[in-house]
Amino acid sequence: MTDTAGWRLRGYLWVAAALAALLLIHERAANLLQGQWLVVTAAAIVVVLYALQRLWELPPAVMMCAAIVLTIFSGSWSTMGFPGFPFLPDRIMIVGVLLLLLMRAPGTRRTPPIRITGVHLLLALLTLYAIASAAAVGTLGSKNGIFDLLDRLGVIPFAMLALAPAIFRAQRERNMLLGTLVGLGAYVGMTAIFESLGPHALVFPHYIVTADATLPESRAGGPFTSSVTEGFASFACAVAAVIAFSQWRGTKARACAAAVAVVCLFGCFVTLERGVWIAAAAGALVSALCTPTGRRWLVPGALCCALVISGALALSPALASRTATRAAYRRSVWDRQNQTSAAVRMIEARPLFGFGWDRFEGEGLDYFRQSSSYPMTGYSTAEKPLPLHDIYLSMAVELGLVGALLWLVALLWGVGGAIFAGGPRELRPWKLGLLAIGVFFLVIAFVNPLQQNFTELLLWTWAGVALGPAPGAATLSARTVRSRPTPLLASG
User: Fold this and answer.
1) What is the pTM of this model?
2) I need a surface site. Which of 265, 294, 331, 364 has the fewest CB within 10 A?
């Protein structure tokens, strides 16, 4: 365990950081250093550096929670008015977390050691395999190839499986994450409702409304501009709200958690994504069946959800019409049928090592065939080729059966190992929650590409939290130290 005073940054280092920021702005967005923008930019740099200085003194869990929140806007920073700085704020926070741990910042005192086990080595092997595949086909140097490696495969999230047990080492840090997810759920869920039912003026940031025009049937995409990622985020935050309801004390706090859970589950519904509906039902069912309390509340909870949805459909004919249209929508079914057939042909053509990382969209058209029973759709929209809407097949097509097997084993080992490993009683709600979102992920991966980084980041961070610190490592929670390992399916 690390229990040192921590390394404090000298003043001249913050001055150097300010100069580096000015140089970066000059290179990427010189207009921000002209006219009145010069004063605004200078003030912003001072504020940001002051915030970073405060974060340097705080536990890494604070910065990691901020990174999770900022990740919901990943890829949309330029749309929000940050010209020349796409992708940066959320990733800067993640890099900041790594620096806090590596440089032994004051907030890392009493941090348990980071343990490396077999699953971490397998994830590293999978990463190297994917990098070699991308290098072999020339996609390693492309923007899409790099960010797909970081996000769709999950190089950054993989690291969270090792780091999260140390970052969220005790009940205090886990409560920070829980509160963050409940607050995030309130925002994500209400945004989805305002997108679908109005008023649209309450949707923030406004780029969400603009992006919704590109989603068919007025599906809610939230800040992710993706109905699938919105559905995953809403479900995961609903799970966090249920955990908060069971742990928080005080009538108002519990009522707030319950309200967030209901809002988030309704947010899953208004995505109008059938895969999200099925995945949410599967995740809730499997996790509920694992505990006596969950089994008792399964039928009442299902009836409550049915009443809320029925009431909303009755009160909003427009939502009822869009829901009926979406339920009967056949185009997406044809898309997936055509993509699946093409993917199977590609796997047969190159079974072992595949076509190379991020190559489906470039190579797939040659493997589409006209069916006698449905139209040939699913390769592209008017703007660009579509990704393969099945992550299992996508891995097999691009990385071959060898890479797909590595990925699947690493996923099941990493997430499943965190669920079923022993640990203190305080981790049991997180293990049950991981079971719910893990099942959601496994189901939705059959029908969608899951390319946005929030999904992978939260899944693997949650897995690290559920895994817990190394056995025997002391924490700030005396109760945690005294608790005995509790299996997932224990009664009570």
Assistant:
1) 0.87
2) 331
